[in-house]
Amino acid sequence: MTAELIDGKRIAKEVLEGVRAETARLPSAPGLAVIIVGDDPASHVYVRTKERTAKGVGFHTEKIELPADCGEARVLEEVAKLNARDDIDGILVQLPLPPGINTLRVMAAVDPAKDVDGLHALNAGMLSQGSGDLIPCTPMGCLLLIKSVIPDLTGMHAVVIGASNIVGKPMAALLLGENATVTQCHIHTRDIRFVCRGADIVVSAVGKPGLVKGDWIKPRAVVIDVGTTRVPDGKGGYTLKGDVEFDEAVKVAGAITPVPGGVGPMTIACLMENTLAAYMARRERAAAAA
Ligand code: NAD
Q1: Most buried pick, 13, 103, 174, 231, via CB within 10 A?
Q2: Active-site pick, 94, 169, 218, 225
Q3: Are 123 and 112 in contact (CB under 8 A)?
Q4: Ligand 1 pocket by Cβ (under 6 Å)
Q5: What is the rounded average pLDDT for all residues in the chain?
Q6: What are the pLDDT digits (tens) for 27-56?
Q7: How far apart, in Å, are the Cα atoms of 213 and each of 16, 83, 183?
Q8: Which among 284, 20, 280, 275 is positioned nearest to 134, based on CA atoms?
Q9: What is the DSSP string of 238-274?
Q10: Nearest to 9 by CA among 176, 183, 191, 144
Q11: pTM > 0.85: yes or no
Q12: Would the pLDDT of 1 be above 80?
């Protein structure tokens, strides 16, 4: 038995088509600004893809590039300028930030109404209370992938491996919001294999290739691999590896995401959804206040 492949590229394309169609009906283009600090090559690749996708759906985009040694005050200054601009609906600060710049302080400075990464404490808190519009893009994309194969998660046992603010924690909150029973694992969890073997849904967001073995997976479970690690390909380039031992897991799971082509495209599509949602919410608030 081979698992169904969950095609993130196809589902992301559908999401983007919806965003493009809605954007075409708007009186002005939603604006997305990206701040990138330093010269991490992977971050620059991600930012270029985000810009290209944003233009493709009809958004206005801007990129603010700062040197790695610019200092936190400079980043905060750029965030403040973007917060004040009416033509910018979404502000994304590409992570990770270089050492010496406090990520939480920078996130806290972004106007929560423009926080299209969903990382501001206000948006994170609203998500944990089961409300809020701006949800972190990667877990939002993972949930869409899961629901493409299991529309109703009520009573399902979901195991999330990884507990970061950007993926693991919001993923667990979203699954709980879908009435799943959620177990959150992290580096200190004992016997993760045992925990995973009881899971109907496994989401792994760690960044350790091959961590999740085939025999951790319950037969017919849904496996979502968020892990994206660059591994040298022996030809001077690199290849992307997920956390899951795909060749083994695919023989046991009911449905599984590939890496690449699974979660990655969904993250970007959900960023566009969030930018559109931020545009709409800001205009609705402005209209109500007028
Ligand atoms: P992180 O380093 O912030 O968090 C990793 C988490 O994994 C931590 O909670 C840690 O406790 C846990 N962990 C570490 N080793 C473990 C182990 N041996 N067993 C169990 N848990 C362990 O990472 P992150 O930002 O959450 O990203 C995780 C992975 O997801 C990375 O590979 C990252 O590149 C990838 N990612 C992909 C996308 C995408 O769009 N595809 C988006 C965000 C992150």
Answers
A1: 174
A2: 94
A3: yes
A4: 138, 161-164, 166-168, 185-187, 189, 192, 205-208, 211, 226-229, 263-264, 267
A5: 97
A6: 999 999 999 999 999 999 999 999 999 999
A7: 33, 45, 18
A8: 275
A9: EEEE-SB-HHHHTTT-SEE--SSSSHHHHHHHHHHHH
A10: 144
A11: yes
A12: no
